[in-house]
Design a protein that fits this description.
heterodimer, A: mainly alpha, two-stranded antiparallel ribbon, B: 27% strand
Chain lengths: 517, 192
């Protein structure tokens, strides 16, 4: 009797395992089907948009996207117009962060310390752009792409200075008491003051539309997707289980953006700087452990930048990838940072501009270079650089793991935290753009928030292809509207900078001893 | 000895909010149950948002146990289980203040919030309403309001802390009438 019962149990267990296996197989197929449908949908209906944004002109053997030139030219113009502010005023920016121009007795409740301000700024800049973005850039552009990322980072500092100053200057207090700022406001109000009311409004609306798309694409689906890709690499979690990753991430995002729970946001704000420190620490360990190869790695970076060997399109191909990924990482010229910086507590808009210009430096010049060195040292990224092998987050993770196996776990932890914090940030940008277009209101805001959470699941579930192109295109499209406005408004920023420096020189703005703190 | 006899004058700044943070939703309401008893009741919404963490965390722990039984991927088990435990613990910590029922009992004559030392009701001199801005660099910043009580010994204790101004004003009126104390409106203009 006992034997029969054991046999039945064994049969049932075997049957249920088989049933489970069959169901999982069907589940995998249906997820695969959904991925292809969504990818096909994006390809069919948004392909024209991607083509328009990344419209290219032939330069030598390569096709050079006009948008990349647009961003590079703008950064160059701002650098010259503001008198190389990113090099000349970097000391001033550091002094502002150190609190040299802040009265220690005037600190009010809720105001963050300068150390907090710096760590927040750092945590905001370090993200998947530094990890996955550099991996993608080097996989397609070769080591030489790093050099162009550094150039783009250095020039982008001026763009960020300009947009963040304007973000604070033209911020608005909404009827609810919420502070809103960013390109939507400086484009409409700033250009309105100059007599271009219609143009300002049109640019602001165009920017807001692209910002919503960018928040759902690069600020959401890309993050969720790469978080699951990291789990897939580190733990062999099957791709079709992305839906679980998506649901977990979406629930946590939901609790923050729909519930307004302050605690998870504060916990994230506290953890992310440590994750950034962890990532930098791991990079330093890899670099120090392979110190004898650093010279060769830099050699490969410089050689690749000017020869473009192994890269489709040669030097131009390397340049395009470097510039594209640097912009995606530091967001200079895109306008998104101006939204975040506009909420800061300051009476001097230019101080926020000066502090913000350090971000592209830390993000791109320092941290992206570290990632690039790790990848180049590991030697897993080999020619031809066509993205056919390891790419994105998996290339970076594999390169770290080449030095120490434990790094893939630490990297998985960091990637998930970065993805989560970036999604929270971009939900904020997207919501600001959404309320600009559709007005404030619990219901209209809830529509966006729910849509945002839904896209987290979509992003983690589907296989990328056309979707990532679309995400990229939307973020780059934001720069079209933003930079047109910046050209009109840059004299205002120059005036603000001059006034601030004159008042420091005259002693009107007092300086305080920061050493005694 | 001289020092021991010196009276120290302490100034209590009623304009200063007691707490730095606060939720972006209505977390508690004042309920006057009888003429003798009033308490602060957490809202369903507040509880539900805390439950999100507990449910998600528990699911991850469950998944980790399932993986432990079904596979030999111990690294994944530790990762998923670790996240699950962290999120569940976070949710449990978050829900604690909502489970503590702060009450005003005229029969025993004390206010008990299950956290601070009990306050004799006759020691309560006034209630104050404070406002603040919960500021975030990478999220929406919002207004938040506090209802605090002040004792004759200078203790300030937070009663309510949320962003529903109208409800907080209403609750302040109810509680002031119940305790027969005055309300001091310490709201101020917050200039960025």
């Amino acid at each position: 009797m006992i034997k029969i019962r054991a046999l039945i149990s064994l049969f049932l267990a075997g049957f249920s395992v088989n049933l489970l296996a069959e169901e999982m197989s069907e589940f995998s197929q249906s997820i695969d089907g959904i991925s292809k449908t969504v990818d096909g949908f994006f390809n069919d209906y948004t392909g024209w948009f991607v083509g328009l944004i990344f419209k290219s002109v032939p330069v030598g053997e390569a096709s050079f996207p006009i948008i990349v030139g647009w961003l590079l030219l703008a950064a160059l113009i701002f650098t010259i117009y503001f008198g190389f502010v990113q090099f000349k005023r970097v000391g001033l920016a550091i002094n502002i962060i150190k609190g040299k121009y802040t009265d220690p007795n005037s600190k009010e409740d809720g105001e963050v310390s300068h150390f907090q301000a710096l760590t927040t700024a750092l945590s905001g800049t370090v993200g998947l752009g530094n990890i996955a973005g550099v991996g993608a850039a080097l996989a397609i552009g070769g080591p030489g792409a790093t050099f162009w990322m550094i150039v783009c980072g250095l020039l982008g500092m001026a763009s960020k200075f300009c947009e963040c100053t304007l973000g604070v200057k033209y911020r608005t207090v909404l009827p609810s008491g919420a502070i809103s700022g960013g390109p939507m406001y400086y484009l409409s109000q700033g250009l309105g003051e100059k007599g271009f009311v219609g143009l300002g409004k049109a640019l602001a609306i165009g920017f807001a539309l692209m910002c919503i798309l960018g928040s759902l694409g690069g600020g959401n689906m890309f993050q969720a997707n790469q978080a699951h890709a990291m789990l897939n690499y580190a733990f062999d979690v099957p791709s079709e289980y992305g839906v679980i990753t998506g649901i977990v991430l979406a629930s946590l995002v939901f609790s923050v953006i729909v519930g307004g729970m302050p605690s998870i946001a504060s916990v994230t704000e506290r953890i992310v700087p440590w994750m950034a420190a962890l990532y930098v620490g791991m990079s330093v360990i890899v670099i120090v452990a392979n110190i004898d190869q650093v010279g060769t790695a830099f050699g490969a970076i410089f050689e690749g930048a000017f020869t473009g060997s192994g890269v489709a399109g040669g030097i131009i191909g390397a340049l395009i990838q470097g510039l594209k990924r640097a912009t995606f990482s530091n967001e200079a010229g895109v306008g998104s940072a101006a939204i975040a910086h506009s909420a800061v507590k300051t009476k001097e808009p230019v101080t926020e501009g000066l502090v913000s210009l350090l971000e592209p430096f830390i993000d791109t010049v320092v941290i992206c270079t570290m990632t690039a060195l790790v990848i180049t040292i590991a030697g897993l990224n080999t020619a031809p650089f066509d993205g056919g092998g390891l790419t994105g987050v998996t290339l970076t993770a594999a390169s770290f793991t080449a030095t120490a196996g434990i790094f893939k776990y630490l990297l998985a932890l960091a990637v998930i935290m970065f993805a989560f914090s970036t999604m929270i940030s971009w939900s904020y940008y997207g919501l600001k753009a959404w309320t600009y277009l559709f007005g404030e209101g619990k219901k209209t805001e809830l529509v966006f928030k729910l849509m945002f959470c839904f896209f987290v699941i979509v992003g983690a579930t589907i296989q990328f292809g056309a979707v990532i192109d679309f995400s990229d295109a939307a973020i780059f499209a934001m720069s079209i509207f933003n930079i047109i406005g910046l050209y009109f408004l840059m004299p205002i920023v120059k005036k603000e900078l001059k006034s601030f420096i004159d008042r420091i020189d005259s002693g009107e703005i007092k300086s305080y001893d920061t050493k005694s703190k | 000895m001289d020092n021991m006899n010196t009276h120290v004058n302490l100034t209590i700044d009623l304009n200063r909010p007691l707490l730095k943070e606060g939720p972006d939703f209505l977390s508690h309401k004042v309920i006057i149950k009888t003429n003798e008893y009033a308490y602060l009741r957490p809202t369903i919404t507040a509880m539900l948002f805390c439950m999100v963490y507990i449910v998600i965390g528990s699911c991850l722990i469950g998944l980790a146990i399932y993986l432990l039984i079904m596979s030999i991927k111990y690294d994944l088990v530790i990762f998923v289980g670790g996240f699950g435990i962290a999120i569940t613990t976070f949710g449990l910590t978050l829900i604690q203040p909502f489970l503590r029922r702060a009450s005003f009992d005229k029969t025993s004559g004390v206010f008990d919030n299950r956290r601070d030392r009990d306050v004799k009701l006759h020691h309560i001199t006034s209630l104050q309403i404070n406002n603040k801005r919960v500021q975030r660099k990478h999220a929406l910043s919002y207004h938040c309001f506090e209802l605090n009580l002040l004792t004759e010994h200078g203790r300030r204790i937070n009663l309510l802390n949320h962003n529903n101004e109208a409800q907080l004003l209403n609750d302040a009126q109810l509680l002031a009438a119940f305790l027969n104390v005055e309300i001091t409106d310490c709201r101020r203009e917050i200039i960025l």
